[in-house]
Amino acid sequence: MGAAPPPTTPPSSSPALSAPPLATPDTPWTLAPGRPVGGFERPVLVTHADDGSGRLFVVEQSGLVRVVRDGVVQPTPFADVRRHLGGRSGEQGLLGLAFHPRFRENRRLFAAWTGPRGENTVVELRARADGSAIDDTPPRVLLAIPDFAANHNGGHLIFGPDGRLWVGTGDGGGAGDPRRTAQDDTSLLGKMLRIDVDARAPARGVETWGRGLRNPWRYAFDPRSGDLWIADVGQHEWEEVDLIPAASAATTVKDFGWSTMEGRECFRAAGCDTRGLEWPVYVYGHGRDGGCSITGGVVVDGRFVFADYCTGRVQAIRRVDGGTRVTTAWESGRRVSSFGLGPDGTLWLVDHGGEIVPLRPSTPTAPGAAR
Questions:
Q1: CATH number of the domain that 262 lies in?
Q2: What is the rounded CA–CA span in Å between residue 205 and residue 173?
Q3: pTM confidence score
Q4: How many domains would you assign to the chain?
Q5: Is 91 in contact with 152 (CB distance < 8 Å)?
Q6: Is residue 191 part of a domain?
């Protein structure tokens, strides 16, 4: 991570910290693992195309997209983008994949990777007419954000309820947001962006929806409520979960606090102004809690499922009566790099060591839960 100033309490001249309550303990809700599927090289994502094929797509950080049918890894990759990548180790490589909501008709999909000069890149790819693999059309570059370090690249891609492609970017790397990009509105680093990929010139229509993110490593919309959950990786002390209810998603640019704040503590001794920040609804620590890096996240039964890369602890958080509640769902002992949903709705845990694991909720959602 590198050296950086430790988090500090605000000086006496700073505004008083005022935050909503953190998540409280929830009733038990557990996840039971099924039979793993293995043989992958540093997998970072599981997804599907919603095209009726029943295929599960596994993204490998080294640049391949593998196909799983009926629990069997197919010998021919769906995509091989290794020639387009710069570094493939650490936090670089192929990091995200999202199929267009109308992929069955238009065969369009989108990928995020780090390019030859480390630039955080979002591209459009095309699949063959039969959808069996990507075709030979050169990638159409939508974004190529210059970067100055190898870490904190974000790279998750999802389509939101608005039909736009949501792109979370890291602060550019190093440690401690050295160039203050997360709060710099002239930079696309440390932001949540939206792209209208169906516009005539989508690269010109990139919109900054949120700032103040350190490294949003997986986020998800609740398909029922439209709420947005974000897992943002911390620096020295705190990992955090952010929640934006659907009702407030369309208002002014959101500010998630980094690097003014880390979690719910001031990170910088000077200028710790907390007014207008979106406070995390849940934080956990690196010391007593043993955490090191948060991994989101998909929504199942109204719960955002996330984990920690070091402890392997899988947790689930939900909205209830205006607040939030959290519970431990499984002590996996795995290096969890992501979660995803299969075409049949199955929740999959992605183990960076080379396996994906199906998980089944073994406790029903408590009655009366808010959606």
A1: 2.120.10.30
A2: 25
A3: 0.92
A4: 1
A5: yes
A6: yes
Q: Residue 152: which residues within 8 A CB-CB, separation 6 or more?
A: 91, 170, 171, 172, 173, 174, 214, 215, 233
CB contact set of 204 (below 8 Å; sequence gap of 6+): none
Residue 31 within a domain: no
Q: Does some domain include residue 3?
A: no
Q: Please report the pLDDT score of residue 364 as a whole number.
A: 56
Q: What is the 3-state secondary structure (H, E, C) of the chain?
A: CCCCCCCCCCCCCCCCCCCCCCCEECCCCCEEECCCEECCCCEEEEECCCCCCCCEEEEECCCEEEEEECCEECCCCCEECHHHCCCCCCCCCEEEEEECCCHHHHCEEEEEEECCCCCEEEEEEEECCCCCCECCCCCEEEEEECCCCCCCCCCCEEECCCCCEEEECCCCCCCCCCCCHHHCCCCCCCCEEEECCCCCCHHHHCEEEEECCCCEEEEEECCCCCCEEEEECCCCCEEEEEEECHHHCCCCCEECCCCCEECCEECCCCCCCCCCCCCCCEEEECCCCCCCCEEEEEEECCEEEEEECCCCEEEEEEEECCEEEEEEEEECCCCEEEEEECCCCCEEEEECCCEEEEEEECCCCCCCCCC
* Domain region containing 237: 37-298+335-345
DSSP reduced 3-state for 85 = coil
Q: Low-confidence residues of the chain, pLDDT below 70?
A: 1-18, 363-371
CA distances (Å), 351 to each of 217, 304, 309, 356, in order? 14, 18, 9, 6
Q: DSSP assignment, residue 182?
A: G
What is the distance between the alpha carbons of residues 207 and 41, in angstroms, rounded to a whole number? 34
pLDDT per residue as tens digits for the range 280-326? 999 999 988 899 999 999 999 999 999 999 999 999 999 998 899 99
Beta strands in 39-153 (DSSP E): 43-47, 56-60, 64-69, 72-73, 79-80, 94-99, 108-114, 120-126, 140-145
> Quick check: bond before 259 cis, omega within 30?
yes
Q: Is residue 5 part of a domain?
A: no
Question: Strand 216-221's sheet: what is its strand order?
Answer: 216-221, 228-232, 238-244, 282-285
